[in-house]
Design goal:
Layout (H helix, E strand, L loop, with lengths): L11 E9 L5 H17 L1 H6 L2 E8 L4 E11 L1 H7 L12 H13 L3 E2 L7 E4 L15 E4 L2 E5 L1 E3 L9 H6 L3 H6 L1 H6 L3 H26 L1 H7 L1 H23 L2 H13 L1
Helix pairs in contact: 1-4, 8-10, 9-10, 10-11
């Protein structure tokens, strides 16, 4: 999905840091992610410039993504000055550089802010609008096989030395069983986006094309016709939301809703 919306130079509501582990182990990436989250929360200088709403951590199936969800949007100029990734004089104020250096000192793991196989890289380059990020609950593919599932995890779990083994053993069925728990760890706007997308699709379907076809019958039916179309829209929206929860009882209920429509 588009990290901060489609198009360019749009407001930034989340900072996306990819823990790109290159040739390093997933457990080393875990240590880097844990230290990074601690640094973000404790960095007084950084927290004077932004107000953090939430920090979201995703296991991608092979490494970690860290999202800083902001209460107040920042612009591209702010990102380029304080959060961009790379090297050179124009990066001297970047917190990414500062955090990478501190992580290496604290963990002993080689962390960097520019591309090199020597480091686990803190890559924030997909933060600006128009850039892409891995969607939660997507599958991690290696070769032609699924070898992982992208799920959110808590900060405290990052301190678990056995975490990688547990995450690597996750299957899509395991995730579906605990879907409600995983969703609660995500940012609220992600859920609002899902509902909005469903509503928009239903709206287009019923209010534009389908409505035009039944305009005359509805007009003849009067009030009862309006009640019918509003009820249909409501039931389809409810059905789509239920389908996203994935459990058997919700899927059964959603099938009933479709039957009613």
């Amino acid at each position: 999905y588009a990290t901060n919306g489609e198009g360019v130079v749009k407001p930034i509501e989340r900072v996306f840091i990819d823990i790109d582990r290159k040739k390093h182990t997933a457990d080393e990436a875990r240590k880097v992610a844990f230290e990074l989250v601690n640094l973000i929360k404790k960095d007084k200088e950084f927290n004077k410039l932004v107000v953090i709403k939430k920090i979201v951590i995703l296991w991608t199936g092979g490494s970690f993504h860290v999202y800083i969800i902001l209460k107040k949007n920042i612009d591209l100029k702010f990102y380029n000055r304080y959060l961009s990734y790379g090297s050179g004089k124009n990066k001297q104020e970047s917190f990414i550089m500062k955090w990478a250096d501190e992580i290496e000192r604290e963990t002993g793991v080689s962390a960097g802010h520019e591309k090199s196989d020597k480091f686990i890289i803190l890559d924030s380059s997909n933060t600006p609008s128009g850039k892409l990020a891995r969607a939660p609950f997507s599958l991690h593919i290696k070769g032609n096989e699924v070898d992982g599932v992208c799920v959110p995890i808590t900060e405290s779990k990052l301190n678990d030395g056995n975490l990688i083994k547990k995450l690597e053993g996750l299957t899509p069925d395991d995730v579906i069983k605990d879907l409600k728990k995983y969703i609660s760890l995500l940012w609220l706007k992600y859920l609002r986006t899902l509902v909005t997308k469903f509503y928009r699709n239903v709206y287009k379907s019923f209010i534009t094309a389908d409505f035009m076809r039944i305009k005359k019958p509805l007009k003849a039916a009067g009030f009862s016709g309006i009640v019918i179309i509003i009820s249909a829209i409501f039931f389809v929206i409810v059905n789509q939301i239920l389908m996203h929860y994935g459990s058997i009882k919700y899927i059964t209920l959603s099938s009933i809703v479709y039957s009613i429509v």
